[in-house]
Every structure is written in C-alpha cells, then in structure tokens.
Amino acid sequence: MAKKDDSSERGEQPETEVVHLGRKPFEQHGFVNTPVYRGSTVLYPTLDAIKQRTQPFTYGRRATPTTKALEDAITHLEGGAATVLTASGLAAISTAVLAFAESGDHILMPDNVYQPGRAFADKMLKKLGVETTYYDPLIGRDIAGLFRPNTKLVLVEAPGSQTFEMPDIPAIAAAARGQNIWVIADNTWATPFFCKPLSLGADVSLEAATKYIVGHADAMMGTVTGNARAAKYLDNAKETLGTCPGSEETYLALRGLRTLAVRLERHQQSGIAVAEWLAGRPEVDRVLHPALPGDAGNAIWKRDFSGASGLFAVVLKPVPEKALAAFLDGLKLFGMGYSWGGYESLVIPFDPTSYRTATRWRGPGPALRFHIGLEAVDDLIHDLSEGFARLESAR
Fold first, then answer.
1. Which GO biological process categories is it annotated with (predicted)?
2. CATH number at residue 292
3. Residue 206 pairs with which residues in a beta bridge?
4. Among this protein's residues, is 232 annotated catalytic?
5. Catalytic site includes residue 114
6. Which of 121, 157, 196, 292 is the most exposed place for a label (fewest CB within 10 A)?
7. Domain that holds residue 80
8. Can you give the pTM of this predicted structure?
C-alpha cells in the first residue's frame, strides 16, 4: 500500500471514499484504523506554544486525532466546510439550531419533525425566547408566506419522521436565501451517501449518526456539517456549548463508516422488497416509502436522492388492538424498539395525531414504522406473513 493520506482530491467513488476517508495509517505506525485517543489534557512543549495555541490539538474536548478523522470524513462526504460532532442525534439538532437562533428570533420546523426535536423547541427554545412555527412539510416555495422579519432559520427533514413526507429542499432553500434565512436539513434517513442537502441549497446538514453511520446499534453520535457561510457559527456553538462525543463512540462511528456503502445497499434492496410485499397485503391501507413509484414523494426522491434506506412505514386498515398485539408480540425477527439503522429489523407502532399542529394525520387504522435490517428478505417476509395470520385469527 502506497504511503498516501486521505486526500479529498482523488475523485473516487463514494464506496471507495467511505473506506479510506479520515484514515492515515502511516501516521499510526501502519495500523489501518485510527486509534482511540482518550484524553482531556494536551501538553504544550514551550511557553510560546501555549501562548500561540497553534498546535493541531489543544484540549480533548476541542478535538483529538480520533474525532478529527471522523469530522474530516463526514465533511468530505457531505460536501461541506466543517463538521461538529455531538453525543447524539438530538444534540446535533439542538447544537445546529442554537448556533443561529437567539432570544427574540422566530424559527420554522416541519410538522413531522423528529418528536424529541419538537420537544426541544416547545420547551427549551420557548424558555429562551425563541418562537417556533410548525409548517406543512409539503409547503415548498410557499414557505415564504410564513417568513417574518425575525425569522432566523428553517429546519427541514427529508423524508419526515414517521410519516415520510418528502419536502422540496431546493424550493425551500431558494425562498429562504432571498430573506437571508438559514436552512438546516436533517439528513439521517439518507446519509450523505444517498443525499447531499448542501448541494440542494441547505446551509447545514445534520444527522443522527447513531443510525446508519454507526450501523450496529451500539453507540450514540450526531454530526452537524456546515457550508463555508455556516462553519464559524457551528464552531462557536461547539465551543460555547461544550459539545463533544465520547472517544469510544467516535471510534465505533469510524468503524461503521467503513461498511456504510454495502450496508445501505442491502438496507435499500431489502427495504423496497419488504415494502412492496406489504403493499400487496389485504391488511395494509398504504405504504409510506418515497422510493416506491406510487408514493407522493417519489418524484422529489428521484430528483434529489441517489438511493433509499431501510426505514419506512405502513398504515393498516382498521384492526382491534388485540389483533395488532397478536401480530407484533409474536414476531421473531422484528424487535420492538426505538432508534433504527442497525443491522437488525425493528417495528414500532405510532400515532402522530396528538403532536401535529399544522397538519392533520389521517389513517384508517394503526401505523407501523419498519426498519429492515440485514436479514434475508424471505425470512423477514415469512415472519410478517405468520404475524398477519395471527392478526386475522385474533380479530
């Protein structure tokens, strides 16, 4: 292997980039993985050095070789200027918003925003004097009608949490740009491998790296990547909020990054296969998956995305709760648990009726969010088929 660094000038395919970005083996005695640097104190060799503070690493919270490796890799994949790492996806949302919003500001969030992000706005931001308006995620360029003189930022989530509406990021970004309003995009579902919000006009792209980048359901992590205009605001938020991830978690995210391409491809193929099978079930009213041709967001997905992940939802026809319990409780391969993006398949029931304010949720029956893992599709379908048999027996 030639002694070269992880130069971003190679122009290689994304599948190659995720394997090599951030790795500098010959600065680590030839070991292919960046080591875990655990530390707070960084020593300075001279009085002049501590006054100048120009050495690459100055304090563990600020950066370590481990965190820099992941920051550099994500920055390149997102096509940004700089990346801030956080301890969770929710921390990525709060850090990104607090980088720009101040007391007296007004912000816009989609009505289908990640529910803990909504709680952050309704509780913490409200207490800090920041007002939040929730908007229809399908509003597109008409979002300009919601702008006020004190509107500071717009958050978009593509696709939306749980119900998978697909926003028109370029249209929203174009409207915001004309008013000097920041646009922050939650890119967790697609990752920078399948979508690059900064190229669509967003100023910031964030994600819960807990999901697909870590990929093994064993660590919490968030990433916030800004364009050149946003980078200094994110760095200031990182410093003043004291945000930083754990050393072990950062290593696990780097490890997960190396297999992101092959895992996402499998999640995509299996997710579409299972979604199509579910769409044909008599118990299913509709499937919510932007990559399916009949989905309302399919045209935007085809325009702005290069792939889909393994997360989608279905709305069932009316069914008694005891029958739904029979379906879910007996599943062998689908665990019931929050989060997603790991190797395992998951399912959770949800009902967004109580936490929508700008739109109304309409579903004839209960809704289920599925994450399709890395198991064989035939085995997953068999498990679901047996589940539907139990559902019918319990009616």
1. L-cysteine catabolic process to pyruvate; transsulfuration
2. 3.90.1150.10
3. 186, 224
4. no
5. yes
6. 292
7. 14-258
8. 0.93
